[in-house]
Amino acid sequence: MTIRHLLMLFAIFFVSTTFAITPTKEQLEQFKKLPKSQQTLLAKQYGIDLGSISSSDGNSQSTKEPGDSTINSNKNRDLSEQGYFSEEEKRFKPHVEKIKPFGYDIFSQQASTFSQAEVSLVPDDYLLGVGDKLKVTLFGQLSSEQIIEVDTRGRISIPELQPIDVLGLTFSELVNLLKVKVSKELLGTSVYVSIAELKSINVLVLGEVSTPGSYSLNSLSTITHGLYKSGGLTEIASLRNIQLRRKGELVQTLDLYELLLEGNTADDIELKSGDTVFVPSITHQVKVSGLVRRPAFFEFKETETISDIMKMAGGLKASAYTDEIKVIRFSNEARKVVSVSPKDLINFRLNDGDEISIQESSSKFRDEVTLIGAVVRPGKYSLTKSPDLRTLIGDPKESLLPQADRQYGLILRGGFFSDYSVIQFSFLELKEQNISLQSGDQVFVFSRYEYKNEEDEMLESLDLTEKELELQNKSKLWHLYEQQLFEAFVNVDALSQLNGKDEEKKDEEAEQWVSLLGDEQQGTQVFSPFSRANLLEPILKRLSYQATPSNPVKLITVKGKVRYPGSYPVSENCTVADAINAAGGLVESAFMSQAELTSYKRGGSLNVEHMSFNLSDELASPSFFLSSKDTLNILATPKWSEENQVVLKGEVKFPGLYTIARGESLLSVIERAGGFTEFAAVNGAVFTRDEIKKQEEQQIIKLTESLQREIATKSLRPNGNDVAYSEVKQLLADLSKVKAKGRLVIDLPKILDGEQNLILQDGDTLIVPPQRDSISVIGEVNYPSSHLFEGNLDLSQYVSKSGGFKEFADEDSLYIIKANGSVLIPESSWFAVKQDNYLEPGDTIVVPLDSTSLDTLTLWSTSTQIIYQIGVAMAAISSI
Q1: Of 18, 84, 447, 721, which has the fewest CB atoms closer than 10 Å, so is most exposed?
Q2: What is the SS3 string spanning 666-704?
Q3: Better-predicted residue by pLDDT, 262 or 869
């Protein structure tokens, strides 16, 4: 259905509700089939009350078609009321559990959808009467098929047979009678008899039904058929005292609860012509909510108790609190709450309007401890079976994941009625110093890697089995589950607002959480699932939140030359060694002779004290303990520098990896390597640097984006884009495959002669290729190839050897990439620098693309030059 049709349909409803024109049943049905969101949208657009439409729906159906009960109208009214709340209002609107009366839904469908008793189900003891129609089929010597009706005298007339009196006969008796008569009167003929149509009966359906009145039903209809035919029950109808009256006398009472809850149809007897089905109003009703399997409004009899009502509600859920059931009761003065114990349920009498509330049992575990983090089997454990940390962990080799930090673990204790505190431990010391656990303790095991890529590289190097990988994923999922539970308890969002955390920071953290299970974006540093940053964040927030002037925050800060500087929870008797273990340990450059501790002393004012100490002595024999807000600063060794290394490859006498001092030159390292071999092509040396490689990678990325943008811009112009799609696709593909080499063009002969000086950096590489005797021709030539160097040949002759120029070659922009990586423009170009004998072995002649023929794609030639130049460097390197 299109929007136009929806608007037309809603316009019909607008006219109907405004000018009292009754909408047709088809219009009502079409509108009811629309999604709730579309109904609400149209209602708001036209300013119409959906409640009035719902009520008109119910009224029209009560007069036109007794199909929908008034309960449906109430449902639509509830939906319309919900539609008037904006998204902001819904956020603050308290959630109210919707509870409906039990049993009325069975009559909520239209009467046309309810199938009355079918003739195929007619029993053998069915009594034939006036109006029944029989289908009589003769076959054999005589063949015919006829529909015969029982006339007003109770007879049937079959043309081939004499009239037969059937009034008072059962269906099976008639079948046997016809078989005997046909066998005697029609030799060689057999008969088959079935009911074609049942006789009709008229019954009255009165009381609390949607459309009271007289209805014509077939003779096999029961009490429930009459209820369906009348459109169902109203919302105040009694389901437990439906009366069948025959000739003024009560002959049957139907309790629909027995039918709905037990499937008992014994009281749903067949109707006879002239019967009256009367549905009285409900007199006693109780509301059952909470932890039951079937929350609803239930009708009850005066003799029934709460125990009976609980059976109607399907019993209690497993999480229900069974020690007490609350009953809210109305009185003249005010509502009151009555507590009912389990032993009183069978005797407790209910009043009309009582509300029975079953509350949820506490979700708090009893006598349990939780193991979280880099462990094989995370989860909750019984305190009775694991009374101490050593028993809980067991053998660390079997219970910890490979990435677990053996030096640092935390026990989080407290909460609810007490402040949180932490106990720090080391798995390596559990044999000598065990720790007793308490109910509710959470044991955190951290990864020794802070970032996910580092942890993944380590795990890949271990070549884990499929089962071990499965354990990794299970541990991550359990950690995520426990982290969410804990954050919900400490209300991390509220704390973040108090601490001024902005929404952008929250979004970043959410992206990191999504990345934990493997969907991380390229180029981003994502914390490991069991990193200190992830596991400690809610703990640090809670400790900060519970701090008071008399109870300072239980945090310390570790700075300087440790693996993971930051803030950490402080436990009792925390030593410098404990603080360093919390921060992941010392790095190599840590200065062991001196460290600094900054403490804050609260008195009349806040005083800051600094203390220097020998780190080695303090680690060997602790002399003091850290306290709240202390800052430990691990200093760096003076003049410390990380080990710098460079690589020499190719025609070097002693190629390999060389460690260099800061400020050391390339010439110095070459001399340490013994110089070059007699086959070295010194003028063709390739020098690469990591820093330049990163710059080239960024340049290639930017160039690719710019080229795509320029091509897209030109394609939108009126003249279109003259560049062939295949050419564009190939160039972009070439750019995506280009791997930056970070080549720095150097003149190695001048460096060897002392005319130039090159200071080395960590990661530099010098590649000296062997002497070459070839000239390469690449670019827009018909056959790019390499040719043996001949000193008497010029540029045009080498190009001719490669098949000559292509159609879009830029003949005037020829250039030469020398063996050392420098670019030389020959004198044939108008801007060339005149030079004799500019071709040497190892050079590469480049024939560029004529970008002017491609609708002035200015980036085209730049892109191809980068590809050519990096390609030449790669060729020089691969020749070694």
Answers
A1: 18
A2: HHHHHHHCCCECCCECHHHCEEECHHHHHHHHHHHHHHH
A3: 262
